[in-house]
Amino acid sequence: MSTANYGRVxxxxxxxxxxxxxxxxxxxxxxxxxxxxxxxxxxxxxxKQDYVFLxxxxxxxxxxxxxxxxxxxxxxxxxxxxxxxxxxxxxxVRACAEQGISEQDLFATREEVANVAYTRYVLxxxxxxxxxxxxxxxxxCCFGYGEIGLRLAAEAAPETRYKDWIATYADAGYQExxxxxxxxxxxxxxxxxxxxxxxxxxxxxxxxxxxMATQLEVGFWDxxxxx
Amino acid sequence: MSTANYGRVxxxxxxxxxxxxxxxxxxxxxxxxxxxxxxxxxxxxxxKQDYVFLxxxxxxxxxxxxxxxxxxxxxxxxxxxxxxxxxxxxxxVRACAEQGISEQDLFATREEVANVAYTRYVLxxxxxxxxxxxxxxxxxCCFGYGEIGLRLAAEAAPETRYKDWIATYADAGYQExxxxxxxxxxxxxxxxxxxxxxxxxxxxxxxxxxxMATQLEVGFWDxxxxx
Amino acid sequence: MSTANYGRVxxxxxxxxxxxxxxxxxxxxxxxxxxxxxxxxxxxxxxKQDYVFLxxxxxxxxxxxxxxxxxxxxxxxxxxxxxxxxxxxxxxVRACAEQGISEQDLFATREEVANVAYTRYVLxxxxxxxxxxxxxxxxxCCFGYGEIGLRLAAEAAPETRYKDWIATYADAGYQExxxxxxxxxxxxxxxxxxxxxxxxxxxxxxxxxxxMATQLEVGFWDxxxxx
Amino acid sequence: MSTANYGRVxxxxxxxxxxxxxxxxxxxxxxxxxxxxxxxxxxxxxxKQDYVFLxxxxxxxxxxxxxxxxxxxxxxxxxxxxxxxxxxxxxxVRACAEQGISEQDLFATREEVANVAYTRYVLxxxxxxxxxxxxxxxxxCCFGYGEIGLRLAAEAAPETRYKDWIATYADAGYQExxxxxxxxxxxxxxxxxxxxxxxxxxxxxxxxxxxMATQLEVGFWDxxxxx
Lengths: 227, 227, 227, 227
Description:
CATH topology of chain A: Heme Oxygenase, Chain A
Oligomer: homotetramer
Largest sheet of chain A: none
CATH architecture of chain A: Up-down Bundle
Structural class of chain A: mainly alpha
Radius of gyration of chain A: 17 Å
């Protein structure tokens, strides 16, 4: 599998900010993961920040359960929390353990500004708005990592030291989970805005949530390059 | 002034649950305020519960500031908090002071179930949904008291011992504040759902918020009759 | 196993409102489950309301993940959401399916006031306070059902038609989950209030959260008896 | 008046992170306001970002009303929202109007990362924790601007073009409002943690909230220097 299909709403949101999307998914940090040129200390620095990111990202998906309006919405959000807390964080824990960094140390990592800005923006999108505002802010991380994983798995030199990272996101389990999130996003948007969702007065606000979160992803990679 | 105009959205919401609206605004408790037949101990019991109600209602309007998306939305919500905390509660404080009940005692009144259900339902509408979900749940109290105040002021025997209560809600200041809330509701709904808001997929959910809060008002009056 | 141990904090909270605790765990509804005398239509009515209760209870446990401050706190809350959404609700779904009631119908059950009051009170405890306020309001349902399940399993006539219900809460899996919640509660309280938690100025507020939620449980059983 | 007294809790929190506090209140941006050497385009850039900051800061103080537990706590928070929305923002609106920037333009200013990080961190402190977590994150802005205003008013060359800005924060009205916030903070902390609040297990977490928000203030000034 080398192309992803995460649904109609994601496709529309991505089309609404093509420059930011490219800056995020084709960032130098990403290219360095793919060809193995990324310095190791940048990667470890990134992993530690990303671990704390995932803590708050799991909080945001849990807020999704609080804000959901159907049983299916609740179940998909709850499964995503489980996947984050019990699976995705494992890569970080194992990779950091090899560097002598314990999980308690990871949890206590002091967050950098780019990290704080991103996760708290997402959490406040949920506090200020509704389920759609939250999903629009959660989407860039979910689907962007999915796209990056698939592309690098197809392109990357097999000997790159970052092949575990790539495999985590190219993995069928991750891709299936993200497809389920795509189904959730489509059905949640259609349920509230109708089939012709882009003509809803709310669309511009959701697009801006998605664009801002994508921009904050770019800042996160920038941070990764300056340990 | 004997008829109120609180805007298009309120008119539509009220039309969507005429039976509940009548049960609320024509409740025996209300009739007893109007003709003076309501037993005094019922009134005092109601006032104490209503004071605690207003505490949580002010919390809910403050949540409105948290969830607003425009400056005008923020300002109207903030003004309403101020009106509640610094004005409407005064009637309760003065009336209860005459009964030897202090404001600290009022604040510590043990809430009855009908009271808890209503205010926490409104607060959770804001936590679960967006600004519109919150407004739809806040609306019945605001506009219902406005309608009741105007009607009783026009109808009530002048010698009813509840004329202060009636005057509080028939008062031009209260009516103007509620008209401003009506303008807020109309503009907030049009901004998010469009001019043809009743054809939005979200309308049914907002209607249900309004209906439920109206039903909870009926329960509040029922509670008032059984001190 | 016939006595439960859910930790020190729960023991202290329960001791702080013995009358409410007895009214809840020894309620006529409970006795009727144990000896089989509860009318079936009361049980079905209760099951439908309880299903909607569990939806909001799962939302409240998810809010726990949002409010947690340690990884262990997050994991226990997330596991509890999973247990609620994917296991405990199954009893309700299966029992109701036998009555010809689908899960979508269950989800759409119109909530009664006693139900609204309870779940929204818990959710607002989390919105207004911190992790401890939320846990104190969640505790009575968790541990009360655990106690009731164990007691009825030891006492109940084996032929009671409610033996499935009893088995659900006497079940080792449920008991282990509640023991884990007891460990969570103890460690969360000690972490924030210290070992001598009952001398903290916050204790009275937590005790009141627990007492109120217990009182709302009594109201829930009362509702169950009047379908 | 040249020294401020904002209470015991603030004094303790400030003492807990002296380096960050000095970096914030003695920042080059601040010195440039005092001696007039700050480039005008830096100031206008800052004013626009600060306007959006105040929007979210008002949201955070409104969240304070939602989370308050006493009538006095509610009233002080509500008054602060009013002061922000109806007074402090005026300086920004007037100064920007002179530059041909309307209030609607101000409201729509695209937020920079340092700005997003700060306000959303504060809002999430309230979402994750209780009233104290929120206050600890709100405190650095309130009291820091108070200290800066008083110091610059005492030191600054009278001809600095930034004398209006300095006067806004040295103003008796602002200082009284901040003294009231200091009283609120002291009473809120004592109410929940006791007189010996620094020995509470929660103190370290509150200190970290305060330190982080102070650090985010430093980042805000840094942003101001790079328009």
